[in-house]
Amino acid sequence: MSSVDQAGGGSSDSDQVGSESTLQAAGAGAPTTAGPTKLLSPHARKRSQTSESQLGLRSRVTLAFTLGALVLSIILGAATLNLTRRSLLAERERRTITRTSVSATTLDGLLKNLQPGADPTPLLSDLQAQGPQFLMLKYPGSGNREPQLFLTGEVPIGDLPQSLVTKALWDGQPAVMRVESKDTLYTAVGVPLPDANGAYFELNAIDDIATAVQSQTVTLIIVSSITTLAGAALGWWASRRALRPLMLVGDAAGRIADGHLETRLNAADYAEDPELGPLVSSFNGMVEKLQAHRPRTRFASDVSHELRSPLTTINASVDVLSRAADNLPDRAKTALDLLESDLVRFTQLVEDLLEISRFDAGAVRLDVNEISLMGVVRRAVEAVAGKDTTIVADDDLDALVMPMDKVRVVRVLSNFIDNAAKYGDGVQRVEVHRSDGTVSISVVDGGPGVPVDERDLIFERFSRGVQGGRRGAGSGVGLGLALVAEHARLMGGEVGVADRDDGESGAVFVLHIPEVPPTDSDTVMEL
Q1: Contacts of 388 (CB under 8 A, 6+ apart)
Q2: Which residues touch 208 (CB under 8 Å, ≥6 apart)?
Q3: Measured by CB atoms within 10 angstroms of the end CB, which terminus of the chain is less buried, N or C?
Q4: Could you tell me the pTM of the whole model?
């Protein structure tokens, strides 16, 4: 829901004590029926584009360590399990072969003394077997005739591989194979009995090996998890230590951006570092050059300051002449009008240059108070654009009180409205919306709009765009929007311009500022 009203409503705000954190320097119009124009905040656009996909450098280093530890743990765990399983199976087969061979030798000797036609099954029970047993005896001179079969255990003869029988019984060669019967895995060993004209087979279950491997798998998973977490912790520690110089560079760059050109990095700490040493030296050299050129950057500020006194005198003199304009000749009146017009522009240029120089010197500070947002907007629009200007706002914004610099918000709105009057055929409406923790204040005009390739350029210093470049009564000096961008940046916000989304000709200038909850809504300052 949104509400539409006319400019002129009152509001209030209260004092808030702000705090600044410092870094220590090393080394020292008419109402319209069109719907509200919704513009997505640049902060919201950046969040929607990058928050899910972009990771910080420290997070990426930590993630690399974590993945590396995880991959190594998996590889080592898999290799350990494979080697363990193969070792256990080989040891079990060796023991089974040895025991079966001893049993076969014993059985072969006993069968020689067995009476013809006697049952040899009791002999199988006397052997030290650890699983099912099979005894196959060939009939003398029977060729490939089906042999006699004697067995113990519950494994059917059909589960004994035919190739194992053929090799041990008919070919007379010992053989080893793995057999699965009734969901149980066995090692089957066949040994020929040359004196008894047969073969002896013994099966040994190896399911306990699979159980042991599974138990070891659980242990390795736990160890791999611990190793992965240790890798993540190591990565976080290493990234923090490795990136600390870059963080110091970033902090120093922030101080330099605030005008503290005495900031330096301690080159002695990185003198022996082949990678960071040149970076620190280059950084300090850059700052020294900036500091050496600082007097040049102060030229505009010094000149502007020196011009204020004579400008004040000239303005006072012109004001005296204006009061006596009725007594002047027509040509003198015309000259006086031109002088007043250019003097206004010249005075504005000097004031803007002084304001820009304060931003460059880092001498500008916010005067933050808790203020009713809609009260500020209505008063600013009423003062600059008149009471008849339409204001479109979300319904819940009338109750919004937030800490902000009222003067700077008013300056931004005043500049937008003045810009619309000069180049946009006047203000159509002012819109206020909130979304994703951002409050957006938009000024909609009915002019020709701003070309896409100039939308960033017009917020640069002394850039006036195509419309601003046309000389006329309302022409400026190209610093107004640059100051708007500086005011917005100081408040933690951004400014932008876009086309109207209702299909009409015109531009929408928007101020995005972060929504901050008030600290004490009971002490709201009266506007």
Answers
A1: 6, 7, 29, 30
A2: none
A3: N
A4: 0.47
Q: What are 102-144's pLDDT values in tens digits?
A: 999 988 888 888 877 788 888 888 888 888 988 888 876 555 5
Residue pair 131/202 in contact by the 8 Å Cβ criterion = yes
Tell me the two tokens of residue 153.
């255990």
Cα–Cα distance for residue pair 459/475, rounded to 1 Å:
16
Whole-angstrom Cα distance, residue 82 to residue 297?
Answer: 72
- Among all chains, which residue has been given the structure tokens 């656009």? 45
Find out whether 160 and 179 touch, Cβ atoms under 8 Å: yes
Longest dimension (CA), the chain: 159
- SS3 for 4-70 is EEECCCCCEEEECCCCCCCCCCECCCCCCCCCCCCCCCHHHHHHHHHCCCCCCHHHHHHHHHHHHHH
DSSP H helices in 177-265: 207-257
Per-residue buried b or exposed e for 62-91, using 16+ beta carbons within 10 Å of the residue's own CB: beebbeebbeebeeebeeeeeebeeebbee
For residue 100, which of 164, 198, 168, 190 has the smallest C-alpha distance?
190
CB distance 86 to 212 below 8 Å: no
Least reliable range by pLDDT among 236-245, 345-354, 374-383, 487-496: 345-354
